[in-house]
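The freezer alarm interrupted the setup, so I double-checked each line after restarting. Inputs confirmed:
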Amino acid sequence: MAGILVYALHYEGAFNKNSLGAIAEASKLAGELGTEAHAIVVGESVPDDLAAQLGGYGAAKVFVVEAPEGLAQPVIDAMAKVMTDNGHDYAIFGGGLLGFEIGAGLAARLGAGVTMEVTGVGVEDGKLVAERPILGDSSISESRYKGKGIIIARLNAFEVPASSGASAPVETVAVELSPWSTKAKIVRRGEQRGADVDIEGANVLIAGGRGLGKAEGFEQLEELAGAFGGNSAVAATRAVVDAGWYPYAAQIGQTGKTVAPKLYLAAGISGAIQHKVGMQSSENIVAINKDSNAPIFEFSDLGIVGDLTQTVPTVIEAVKAKKGS
Amino acid sequence: MKICVLVKEVPDAAVTKRIDPSTGRLDRSGEKNLNPYDTHAIEAAMQLKEGGELQIDEIVAVTMGPDSAVRALHKAVSLGADRSVHLSDEALAGSDVAATGYALAQTLKRENPDLVLLGQQSDDGECYTIGAVVADHLQAPSLTQVIKIDVVDGGLRCERQAEYGYDTVQVELPAVISVGDAINEPRYPSLKAIMGAKKKPLDALKTADAEIDVALVGASGSQVQCGSFKAPPAKSAGLIIEDEDTNDTVEKIVAWLDERKLI
Ligand SMILES: Cc1cc2nc3c(=O)[nH]c(=O)nc-3n(C[C@H](O)[C@H](O)[C@H](O)COP(=O)(O)OP(=O)(O)OC[C@H]3O[C@@H](n4cnc5c(N)ncnc54)[C@H](O)[C@@H]3O)c2cc1C
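Predicted 3D structure, all chains:
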């Protein structure tokens, strides 16, 4: 039976939205393949009733494995055992950093093929075919698997439906961890660096990247957000959050937030895929970048090729003047 | 202790990338350079060595790639590696991520390093998972996207951003760690180091030297078949304004925003 196993990431009692989307997608694909989609939850004392909720998104069965949370390698051990014992041919991940690490390690363990950043999956001749955008999203390539296939989706690739309320049977599986899987230990997880800013409800987001040159560059962006008034906020890229210029809570992208404001104004942001996935659904995207080849211009509605140190202050004055009039 | 740094030759960022229609693979001709993300891994190795908390005797740059990849190794050596290893074989052409990771792991086994470092991603293939593949084959603990490394209790205390915030993880050696670009500011090589790079030892290996099972590599050994390249759904191109006169540009921006009732 060519079943599909989906990794369900959970944290503090809630499932990751992208994992739920992956389960729903897998359940649809399993229907076309004439098989079942199963989910696997790996963690410390995962309650059965939490795991059973995945039935509401289409999991026909949920495997629960007791193992340390927050690291990829124990999950590789767990998924390799469950897939081997139950004959799953495919594993699907909803994206996220752990998904990438687990999926790649699992491919090595099982001798399977792996595709990452997948944006769509279809069925052809009784097998899954994964679509992956390449070359800065200018082309889409299709992956087919000779044997087992591991599909790691791009963030937000799959719709998350409302739960049907169904409950899935839960099977607890004992897995012996590989010796090397216990040689990395979480000391601290989910540390929130910087202020706890709220950007998810904003209609206007003014986002800044490394092109600001220094942490102080964000003061101007805050002033610009202030000039727009109302429901506006300032957002950031991972590059500047890692550098400590702006709080993690304001980060957009793969390992940050996903937003879709009315206006997303990006200043000094290159537009890397991992940033794009968190903001590409914004209604209007305006980019200011001095490099005319910056990838962000490929998906902005209005692109300004120029130095932000000149344009941003002038935009602030102009927006203020406009508001005052 | 020995650190191996995995490096890769990639098309220069200024070169337009394309798929060669005859092979279905990335056209890797044209100007090439050391993957910029890898320079952070070399710098991280140098800082561990200079930090002195671990006794690092040797830093070895390791690559898999065509003959031209030697230049990436020279660059790596100019940035601080003591010597390099070049795995190159026709049999490897067309290897997918899993096959490449296997071949690199076999190559690393000959060196038996205490730590393998690599960059967060490759600039061309848009892949950031090779470390996880290598680690599974080497049976070593592994972490990707690490932005801080401290030596604690003879192991590495690593920090990285994952999906729920920053995680701190204690990793025992030997380990495989990919580093993010925020971890350090790579130094510039000295002229002397650039000149001397070609004289440092370079081991050229074929698949047989690294005991690589050729049935598991190359296009035929890869488990993924890529093909049927197609264009993504067309998105209407945005308006681009070259900022020549800032007042004029800003006037256009404000008019554009105003038209869409965004102010
Ligand atoms: C697994 C993984 C997860 C990731 N998750 C995320 C994530 O969640 N969010 C995220 O944002 N990134 C993420 N990244 C990182 C991502 O790949 C990019 O490195 C990052 O988004 C780049 O940030 P940036 O645009 O600020 O910096 P850069 O890429 O350095 O771009 C800076 C831009 O500023 C422009 N510039 C410079 N000076 C000026 C000036 N004076 N005026 C105008 N323009 C100027 C430059 O031309 C350049 O385009 C992730 C990467 C990986 C591998």
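Quick read of the result. The pocket of flavin-adenine dinucleotide is lined by residues A 97, 209-211, 237-240, 251-256, 268-270, 272, 274-275, 288-291, 294, 307-309; B 120-121, 128, 145 (CB under 6 Å).
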